[in-house]
């Protein structure tokens, strides 16, 4: 069980480091100009709402963002897993051909 926990911790660290590397390779740019413009428009609309409605919208946007982050991480992990499986498959094929 401890080995599994260590592997999970290693995988989390690996993903975090890779995400940071990609972020830095893109000069820290997370959003394209269209998204920034859209965000400004949304904030302008939200400011016009009563406080209670602002909180509902804010909570909804936060929850949606969190769900999207979780989904993106899930897909990243699946891609990483598939890549490792493909590597092992190719290694097995090459080892068989070299015999």
Describe the structure.
- The protein is mostly helical.
- The chain has a domain of 49 residues.
- Helices cover 88% and strands 0% of the residues.
- It has three helices and no strands.
- The protein starts with a helix and ends with a helix.
Helix fraction, binned, reads over 70%
Q: Find the structural class using helix and strand composition.
A: mainly alpha
SSE pattern: HHH
Mean pLDDT: 81
Distance between the termini: 36 Å
Number of helices: 3
Q: How many individual β-strands?
A: 0
Principal-axes geometry comes out as: elongated
CA-based gyration radius: 21 Å
Largest pleated sheet: none
Instruction: Outline the low-pLDDT stretches.
Output: none
Looking at this protein, list some descriptive labels:
99 residues; mainly alpha; 3 helices; 88% helix; elongated
Secondary-structure topology with pairs:
Blueprint: H1 2-25, H2 33-47, H3 51-98
Concise overview:
This protein is mainly alpha-helical. The chain has a domain at 51-99. The protein is 88% helix and 0% strand.
